[in-house]
Design brief:
alpha/beta, GMP Synthetase, Chain A, domain 3, Ribosomal protein S3 C-terminal domain, four-stranded mixed β-sheet, 8 strands, globular, structural constituent of ribosome, ribosomal protein, Small ribosomal subunit protein uS3
Length: 229
């Protein structure tokens, strides 16, 4: 029986950081529930904006939501009206969550930051969403696999890439697993900077799972760099 671990969690504190950054002994469960539900809702709502990551920071009076996207213009809108609308909708969603679970948490001032992601094809979450968009347009999965791997590996920062699809590919009667790989993907090396994401494509003949691994080289500490030199 295999023992699997999420590549992001496996490297927390080494090459990755927590997506929710706060600590509260009294309201830990309530805050964690809010972060999880809010992040899931934002990812569904902002699907077309190709969001790479949603980070949440909390202080006693302020809740800071950081949205990293390759299409910031879609979220910001003309004159910042889109960002203001999103901010109001986040407040409304938090109110609904607190009302649903009857949590007596002090209301926070919402601060929204939208950051642009450079070279979106080198980020696993955005690459996976691009693949999902193409699958839902009914493009051949073999063509999608080949083009996406070539496009991702074309960047200098990328040392290896692996893309896997699972489901009723091209509407076949039986589901199967197909993958394509180029370069190295050292999953057992903690210092390896491996970006991982999974998304789901919704088609007329069922769902198709998409997984993307992108290896961007090893991350060394200063002491390790000096010893190697």
């Amino acid at each position: 029986m295999t023992h699997r671990v999420h590549p992001y969690i496996f490297r927390i504190g080494r090459t990755t950081n927590w997506k929710s950054r706060w600590f509260d002994m009294k309201n830990f469960a309530g805050n964690l529930r809010e972060d999880t539900l809010l992040r899931e809702w934002l990812q569904k709502r902002l699907r077309s904006a190709h969001v790479e990551q949603i980070e949440i920071e909390r202080s006693p009076n302020v809740m800071h939501v950081i949205v990293k996207t390759s299409r910031p213009g879609i979220l910001i809108g003309r004159g910042g009206t889109g960002a203001e609308d999103l901010k109001n909708q986040i407040k409304k969603k938090l109110f609904e969550v607190r009302k649903r679970f009857k949590t007596s948490v002090k209301p926070h001032d919402i601060r929204l930051t939208i950051e642009e992601v450079r070279m979106p094809e080198t980020h696993a979450a955005i690459a996976a969403q691009m693949i999902v968009d193409e699958i839902e347009k009914r493009i051949s999965f073999r063509r999608i696999l080949k083009q996406s791997v070539e496009k991702i590996s074309a960047s200098r920062d990328v040392k290896g890439v692996k893309v896997a699809l699972k489901g009723r590919l091209d509407g076949a009667e039986m589901a199967r697993y197909e993958k394509l790989r180029k370069g190295r993907i050292p999953l057992q090396t903690i210092r390896a900077n491996v970006d991982y994401a999974e998304r789901t494509a919704y088609t007329t003949y069922g769902t198709i799972g998409v997984k993307v691994w992108i290896y961007k080289g090893d991350v060394f500490d200063k002491d390790e760099k000096q010893s190697v030199a």
